[in-house]
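Our example pasted here:


***
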Amino acid sequence: MAKKSKKQQQGGTPATVALTAAGVAFTVHAYEHDPAHPSYGEEAAEAMGVSADRVFKTLVADVDGALTVAVVPVAGSLDLKALAAAVGGKRAAMADPALAERTTGYVRGGISPLGQRKRLPTVLDSSASAHATICVSAGRRGLEVELSPEDLAKLTEAVMAPVGRA
């Protein structure tokens, strides 16, 4: 078991610790997670009173045998062909959830594009650039972090590409 930093022991997650260390401006939004809700992302948008096109979900896919992160609006879905093309691959499929959890260090519904155990290639849907700030998982269910899409792209070394579908 990895030793937790002082900030993590005080309630931070690897994502918020990474943001703090990078000196990036962000806001944490906590809400009561309802395990019965059919969509983690839509639940977050509703709970925070934020438009669903500003709340992004973090999905892990397998592109030609390599795990890749896609960050897309919760109101839509991931275009797997577009994701593969964005990273120079041929085929993409959703990754095995258990593998995604082991690789990122987060649980499904709480996977953040930030502070992952192993940094994975990341693609941020280009629709994010239409907003001053977007929300992504802060590393656990019921916790979101709001930051600029530019800061998210910089910190994750993300490629911006149209990989989301309405």
About this structure: The radius of gyration is 15 Å. The first strand starts at residue 27 and ends at 30. DSSP finds six helices and ten strands in the chain. Confidence is low (pLDDT under 50) at residues 1-10.
